[in-house]
Model the fold of this input.
Amino acid sequence: MIKQALSISILGVFLTGCGVGTTQLTPIQLTPTQLNNKKPIKLTFKNSLKNLKIDDSKIAWSISKELPKFSKYSFERSFGSLLKIKGFSSSASASGYITAKYENTEDYGSSIGRTMTLYDINYNIKEIEGGKQIEIHYPIKKFTTIGTNGVNGTIPPLDTSANIQQDFDRIFSRISSTNFIIQDKYPIKGEFNSKYSSTSIYANFERIFGSYKSDATKKIYKDTYKLDLNNKITPIYVKVYPYRNGSKVQYSVDLPYTLNSNGNMSISEKNIEEIKRKIEKTVND
Done:
């Protein structure tokens, strides 16, 4: 597993630098260091919706994006005439690891020198009743590389090995006590017939829900109405077609939600059913 994670990490390092002008990265030699093993951390994301499938990559990403907040080494990236990168960053892969990276990078025009310490945090995710559980493993190795400045000197690391290790251990210890949040949208769609005309149905949506207006542009969208749930406005898209002696109504809503590792979810099946009932009542009122 370590070999696989390492090979992907090295590839990611090279790809990151190749887009900066015509400058190429200097060769990277990674030196592994054995670490003491620790107990894995388990987090549970409970899902209260029957048909919702939680994507594994979104679980891993929700964790990786929070890790920099726990590090004392803030991430700085400046382009200017020459690229400079310094600090801590993390990224998630769907293949089962989160990479934590301490980096000091300098662009010398003809070459980019990169001194880094890498930790590949392996994880696995499994289905459990009512949701998913992620098990996060403390890395058994860390990898270091020393970059050169294109002449004879080397680029110093971000900090001493002991201080970097202390910072990483603090980050890892914070995982178990942090509430990680997945933000996504749950699609709701429906279709049914009504004895009323399209004019009457559109008028009811306008009266009961009101026209949806973009916060950014203030533009009012045709056949789009506003749904207020948990003090958040979400657009309802409505289409009404003549059908026999009445109309056929189609609607869709992409309902925003949050799913937390503390077991909470911002929407429920009850919310979904209430929305469907309100729309149907609006059509047949």
Remarks:
- The two ends are 60 Å apart (CA to CA).
- The mean pLDDT is 85.
- Residues 2-178 form one domain.
- The CA atoms of residues 58 and 235 lie 24 Å apart.
